[in-house]
Design a protein that fits this description.
Helix content: 40-55%
Number of helices: 21
Bound molecules: phosphoenolpyruvate, magnesium ion
Shape: globular
Strand order of the largest sheet: 1-8-7-3-4-5-6-2
Length: about 550
C-alpha cells in the first residue's frame, strides 16, 4: 500500500527546494532515574570522571577539526565539561549514593539554574550546559551521543532545534536542508541557514511525524515539507528546483524588478575578508560596514592611522561603488571597553550607539577623520551613517560634525520607533537613511533580540514594524532621498519585495542571501510589490502577514 502525501508547514528560510531522505537527530536523553546505584561508589566515580574527561577531549578534537569560530564554540563547551567545581559537585552527589548519570544530570542542572537566574547572556549559556550534560550522560551509558547523525550520503536533517555545538560542525555537503520543530525566524538555526544558504524550515511543529528514511520534498520558499510525495510530485519539484537555481544563477546583474525598476543590492560586511565575499556574490557595494567588529578586542580607542588602514582595505575592494560606513555602534550586545559605560541595568536602552559617541566626541571625531582620509585616497563612493538615532536633534548634531570633517554623504540609521515616526524631519537634514530592522523590531516589540524565550516576537514581518517602515518609505519619497534596509529582513526574499513596496530603494544583507533576493525581486513589478505591501499592512500579526504574502506567490 502506498502512503498518502502529507504536508507539514513551518517558516521557510531562503528559497531553496530539495528532495531527499530524512535523518532525525536523536531526541534528548530521558532524565536518568533517581534510584540508587548498584555499583560501588568508586566505580561510579570512575564512570563519571572519565566520561567528563573524555567528553572534553572529544569536544576539543572536534574543535580542531572544524577550526574557525566553531573551534571557539567547542572549546567553550569543553571548558564546561572539565570545570573543577562541577566535578566536585558530581563527586559529592555520588558519595551521597547517586548513580554517575544522575549525579551529572543534577550537577549540571543546578549550575544551569544559577545561570538562568543571572539572565541575559549567562542565561543563554544554560542551554549549552544541558547539551554538554547530555553528551557526558550518553558516554556513561555507552549510547551514541545526541547530535547530528554521521553519514556518508546526503540527507535532510530533522531536529527539535540545533544546539551551537551541532551547528558548528554541520557538513554542508552532507546536510542538504534543515527542518526543526522548534525555533523561529531569528533563531540561531535560521540565522545559520541564511548565512550558509542552506534551505531550512523552522518552527514546523508537526515535523515530529518524519522518521529516518522518509523521502520528503523540502520547499523553503513555500515553508512546506511534503512527506511521501508521489512520483509526479517529486518530478515536478526537481524541475522547479532547477528553475529556481537557474533563476538564482541567471540573476547576476544589478537588482532589477520585472518592470526594470532598479533596487540596489548591497552587502553587510564587518572586515576586509567579508568584503571579499561580498564582491564574489556580485554585491553592488556595501550597505552596512559594521566598524565596531574591527575593534571588539581593543582596550583603548584605535588611532586615526590604524582605523584609516582598516577602512582603506575595505574601500579598495569597491572602486566606483557605494560603501556605507557605520560609525561605531558600541553597547548592548556589542560592548567596546573603551566606549561603553559599565554597569547599566538596561544596556539596550542605555548609552549605546550614537549616544556613547556623543559622550566621547573625540572618538567620533577621530573615526570620522579616519573615514574621510581613507575615502579621499580611494575610488569608492563613501557614505557615513550613525546608529541608534532617536531624535531630530541627534541627526542635526551628527550631520553637522560630518560636514565639518569633510564627509560628503551623511545619513542615519532608523532603528528606534521614534526616528521612524519622525523620518520626514530627519530626512530634511540627513542625506539618506538606512533602516536597521533587527533593532527596529527589538524596540518596537520590546523583545530582546538575543533572548530565545522572546524570539517569537522578534519578527520583522510584524505589521507594526512594517507600518513604521512605511512611514520612512513615505518620507523618502517626499524628500526624494534614499531609504535603505540593512537588517536581517532584507535577506528574506519575499519580505524584500514587501519592503520595496513600502518605498525602500536599496537592500543590504549578508552576501549569501544576495542571489535569492536578486532572483525574487526580478519576479515582481513595482506596482505588484506595492499591492503586496498593502495586503500585508492590513494584517493582524506576523503569521498572517506571511500567509497574505505567500498567497500571492501560489496564485
Ligand atoms: C540592525 O539593527 O538591524 C542593524 C543592521 O544593526 P546591527 O544588527 O548591527 O545592530
Ligand atoms: Mg542595530
Amino acid at each position: 500500500m502506498t502512503n498518502k502525501e502529507i504536508i507539514v508547514t513551518g517558516i521557510g528560510v531562503g528559497r531553496g527546494l530539495v528532495v531527499g531522505d530524512v535523518r532525525r537527530m536523536p531526541d534528548p536523553l530521558p532524565e536518568p532515574t533517581k534510584t540508587g546505584s548498584t555499583k560501588t561508589t568508586e566505580e561510579e566515580l570512575v564512570r563519571a570522571s572519565s566520561a567528563l574527561n573524555q567528553t572534553a577531549v572529544d569536544l576539543r578534537a572536534r574543535g580542531v577539526q572544524a577550526g574557525g569560530m566553531a573551534k571557539d564554540v567547542l572549546d567553550a563547551l569543553a571548558l564546561m565539561a572539565d570545570d573543577p567545581m562541577l566535578l566536585a559537585d558530581v563527586k559529592e552527589r555520588i558519595n551521597r549514593g547517586s548513580t554517575a548519570e544522575r549525579a551529572v544530570f543534577d550537577a549540571f542542572a543546578g549550575f544551569a539554574a544559577v545561570l538562568e537566574t543571572a539572565g541575559g547572556y549567562m542565561a543563554e549559556r544554560a542551554g549549552d550546559l544541558a547539551d554538554v550534560a547530555n553528551r557526558v550522560i550518553a558516554r556513561i551509558m555507552g549510547i551514541s551521543a545526541p547530535g547530528v547523525p554521521q553519514s556518508e550520503t546526503p540527507f535532510i536533517l530533522v531536529a527539535r532545534d540545533l544546539a551551537p555545538a551541532d551547528t558548528a560542525l554541520l557538513d554542508f555537503d552532507i546536510v542538504r536542508a534543515l527542518v526543526t520543530t522548534d525555533g523561529g525566524p531569528t533563531s540561531h538555526t535560521a540565522i545559520l541557514a541564511r548565512e550558509k544558504g542552506l534551505p531550512a524550515i523552522v518552527g514546523a511543529t508537526l515535523a515530529n511525524v518524519l522518521v529516518d528514511g522518509d523521502i520528503v520534498i523540502v520547499d523553503a520558499g513555500k515553508g512546506e515539507i511534503v512527506l511521501h510525495p508521489t512520483a509526479d510530485h517529486v518530478a515536478d519539484a526537481l524541475v522547479e528546483a532547477q528553475s529556481r537555481q537557474a533563476a538564482r544563477d541567471g540573476a547576476t546583474g544589478p537588482g532589477r524588478m520585472a518592470d526594470g525598476h532598479e533596487v540596489q543590492l548591497l552587502a553587510n560586511v564587518g572586515s576586509s575578508s567579508s568584503a571579499g565575499a561580498a564582491v564574489d556574490a556580485h554585491a553592488e557595494g556595501v550597505g552596512l560596514f559594521r566598524t565596531e567588529f574591527l575593534f571588539l578586542d581593543n582596550d583603548t580607542a584605535p588611532t586615526v592611522e590604524a582605523q584609516r588602514a582598516e577602512y582603506a582595505a575595505v574601500f579598495d575592494k569597491f572602486p566606483g561603488q557605494k560603501v556605507v560606513v557605520r560609525v561605531l555602534d558600541a553597547g548592548a550586545d556589542k560592548p567596546l571597553s573603551f566606549l561603553t559605560d559599565e554597569g547599566e541595568e538596561n544596556p539596550a536602552l542605555g548609552r549605546r550607539g550614537i549616544r556613547a559617541l556623543f559622550a566621547h566626541e573625540e572618538i567620533l571625531r577621530a573615526q570620522l577623520t579616519a573615514i574621510a582620509q581613507a575615502a579621499e585616497a580611494s575610488l569608492a563612493e563613501v557614505w557615513v551613517m550613525a546608529p541608534m538615532i532617536a531624535t531630530v536633534e541627534e541627526t542635526e548634531a551628527f550631520v553637522g560634525i560630518c560636514r565639518e570633517l569633510g564627509i560628503n554623504k551623511a545619513g542615519v540609521m532608523i532603528e528606534v520607533p521614534s526616528s521612524a515616526l519622525l523620518a520626514n524631519h530627519i530626512l530634511e537634514i540627513a542625506d539618506f537613511v538606512s533602516i536597521g530592522t533587527n533593532d527596529l523590531t527589538q524596540y518596537t516589540l520590546a523583545a530582546d533580540r538575543l533572548l530565545g524565550t522572546v524570539a517569537n516576537l522578534q519578527d520583522a514581518w510584524n505589521p507594526a514594524v512594517l507600518r513604521l517602515i512605511r512611514e520612512v518609505g513615505l518620507a523618502g519619497k517626499m524628500t526624494k532621498k534614499p531609504v535603505g534596509i540593512c537588517g536581517e529582513a532584507a535577506a528574506d526574499p519575499l519580505l524584500a519585495v514587501v519592503l520595496i513596496g513600502l518605498g525602500v530603494t536599496s537592500l543590504s544583507m549578508s552576501p549569501t542571501a544576495l542571489a535569492d533576493v536578486r532572483a525574487e525581486i526580478s519576479r515582481f513589478t513595482l506596482s505588484e510589490a506595492r499591492e503586496l505591501a498593502e495586503r500585508v499592512l492590513s494584517t493582524r500579526n506576523a503569521a498572517d502577514a506571511r500567509i497574505a504574502a505567500s498567497a500571492v506567490l501560489t496564485q
